Hints:
The chain has two domains: about 1-95, Ribosome hibernation promotion factor-like (Double Stranded RNA Binding Domain, 2-Layer Sandwich), CATH 3.30.160; about 125-170, SHC Adaptor Protein (2-Layer Sandwich). Helix content is about 30%, strand content about 35%. The chain has helices at about 15-25, 70-95, 130-140; strands spanning about 1-5, 35-45, 45-55, 60-65, 110-115, 115-120, 125-130, 145-150, 155-160, 165-170.
Amino acid sequence: MKITVSGKQMTVRQSLKDLTEKKLAKFDRFFGDDAEAIVVYSCRHDLQYIEITIQYGGTFFRSEEGADTFQTAIDQAIEALERQIRKNKTRLEKRLRTGAFEVTADEPYEEEEGEFRIRTKSFPIKPMSVEEAILQMNLLEHQFFMFRDAETNEPCVVYRRKDGDYGLIVADN
């Protein structure tokens, strides 16, 4: 697994990088050599945060945890990722096809416009079913996910509703 470690407004010590690589080695049994892990450390609100995003076969696994120490935060993030992988392993084997969610991991471009701060991300949108889009949204732990419907080839958005159900937004032509 290729691991990229960085710090947001901080420098990451070599000992922390080594600990990160040691802890992430646990996932070698789940992923092949072409898996990529992006680890970002930061400090906010008197807590130390770690964000881990693993991309493998076009699918993303993500966890963000905050704790009093980076060691505690990384342990919590690793546990959350392992739960996520185990919980979705059967569904992933049945539903995902190779390259279904292939996304480029470009750095987001941030631009200020007046009082607003705009963060832009771009990625190719692959055709998929609504169920696959919901699975991908849950794996990313996001509230919404944009995709192209495999049947109609139209752009759509799935989102998590406050009542726990899911919603689907389709274009009205």
